[in-house]
Inverse folding.
């Protein structure tokens, strides 16, 4: 350590750093950690992590590539880009490896895209917290457009044109619209006709369509296809995906983007690569090797994803049932590991019994009184007064890999003692909430 020289006394800086709040999903995790530290029994339903162990074959591939220390190409290795192209081609979107760009997660790729597009971005309301936050980080404005009822992840095509025309009249430059297929936070999947109409409006308005398809392989109903915008507006659709959700490798940080063919797509790719070259240089080489293996979809990984899809479907449905039993309105979860209940039907009782007026009041009550960590709908751009929240049950699958593997293998995971126990606790909390809301609380002594 250097001793401080007496001639250069410490001097406070005369400015504050730009305030950038911690992403709401990460913040709820930290709050729960504190509660657990205080000895409270907690139900961690806030963080959108897949909650499944890494498949051993994937770990073996990573280990085999640990010696790869060189940076490699900014766009990613030829092997990874070819494998990702194959992944999309098998899903009905013929893809040339030259259209694929990889990065350390799809989040940074999205950031590079928004940076390269350089304009305001239409985001669905509600939508994943990061779209609006990243739009602001690149110095642009999110234009929030409500989703059609029951179809999360896609701004209502009927409202899109009006919102964009109004923003442009204010002098704003709107360049893109983001869709999430299937959706986080609602766990639903928009209908094909809605996506087709959205693409038609995007074409009329000269918007790029960014389709975040990170949950694509986690649609609960077997055989239901995801209506990707790339089918309806290939000249302007960018698709992103990653290993984070279907293979539960979020911490590995590996994502891929598919850019459109043609002059605009190539120019966009060049700009994205420019941003990538100045921010992350290249995605980690050992991860790229493992990802090339994953995107080739060997049978053992396909089966693993299949089982995780069944686990997510079973537990999300059981959670939705608990909320419905307590009197909430709950869209049936259709994909991924999210439930998005609306406690609007209990509004009067919650207001009188607990002073709950907003989604944030409700989620603070759940956290402070019951140790239940969920996120308010307002974090996703829902109006603050709507009593909706996102519930992510995947951290209930087990405390350790042994329990998580048992959950993956079980034909009835919601009946496993540790999952059933958590579901019962959730049921009790909701019943208590509804009951004590109905009977006003005595004032604290
Ligand atoms: C809709 C959506 N897109 C992207 C991500 C993150 O992707 P990655 O881990 O590839 O950066 C998440 C994670 O929560 C998500 O919910």
């Amino acid at each position: 350590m250097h001793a401080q020289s007496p001639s250069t006394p410490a001097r406070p800086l005369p400015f504050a750093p730009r305030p950038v709040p911690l992403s709401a999903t990460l913040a709820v995790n930290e709050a729960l950690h504190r509660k657990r530290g205080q000895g409270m029994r907690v139900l961690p339903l806030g963080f959108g992590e897949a909650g499944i162990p890494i498949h051993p074959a994937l770990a073996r591939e990573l280990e085999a590539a640990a010696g790869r220390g060189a940076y490699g190409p900014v766009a990613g290795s030829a092997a990874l880009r070819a494998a990702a192209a194959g992944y999309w081609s098998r899903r009905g979107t013929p893809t040339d490896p030259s259209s694929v760009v990889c990065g350390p997660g799809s989040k940074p790729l999205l950031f590079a895209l928004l940076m390269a597009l350089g304009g305001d971005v239409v985001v669905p309301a509600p939508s994943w917290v990061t779209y609006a936050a990243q739009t602001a980080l690149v110095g642009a404005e999110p234009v929030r457009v409500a989703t059609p009822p029951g179809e999360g992840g896609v701004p209502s095509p009927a409202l899109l044109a009006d919102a964009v025309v109004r923003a442009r009249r204010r002098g704003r430059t709107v360049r893109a619209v983001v869709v999430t297929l299937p959706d986080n936070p609602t766990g639903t999947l928009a209908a094909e006709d809605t996506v087709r109409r959205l693409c038609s409006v995007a074409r009329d308005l000269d918007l790029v369509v960014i389709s975040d398809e990170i949950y694509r392989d986690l649609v609960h109903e077997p055989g239901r296809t995801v209506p990707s915008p790339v089918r309806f507006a290939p000249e302007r659709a960018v698709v992103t995906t990653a290993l984070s959700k279907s293979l539960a490798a979020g911490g590995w940080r590996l994502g891929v983007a598919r850019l459109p063919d043609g002059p605009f797509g190539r120019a966009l790719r060049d700009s994205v690569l420019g941003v990538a070259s100045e921010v992350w240089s290249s995605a980690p080489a050992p991860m790229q090797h493992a990802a090339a293996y994953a995107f080739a979809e060997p049978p053992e990984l396909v089966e693993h994803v299949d089982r995780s899809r069944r686990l997510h479907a079973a537990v999300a449905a059981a959670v939705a049932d608990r909320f419905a039993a307590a009197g909430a309105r709950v869209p049936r979860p259709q994909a991924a590991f999210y439930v998005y209940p609306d406690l609007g039907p209990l509004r009067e009782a919650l207001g009188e019994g607990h002073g709950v007026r907003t989604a944030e009041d409700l989620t603070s009550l759940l956290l402070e009184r019951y140790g239940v960590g969920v996120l308010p709908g307002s974090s996703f751009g829902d109006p603050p007064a709507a009593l909706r929240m996102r519930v992510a049950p995947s951290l209930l699958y087990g405390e350790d890999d042994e329990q998580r593997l048992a959950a993956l293998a079980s034909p009835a995971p919601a009946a496993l003692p540790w999952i059933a126990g958590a579901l019962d606790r959730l049921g009790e909390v909701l019943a208590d909430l509804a009951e004590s809301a109905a009977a006003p609380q005595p004032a604290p002594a």
Notes: The chain is about 45% helix and 10% strand. The chain has a mean pLDDT of 94. Residues 72-296 form a domain with the Aspartate Aminotransferase; domain 2 fold (CATH 3.40.640.10). Residues 299-325 form the longest helix (27 residues).
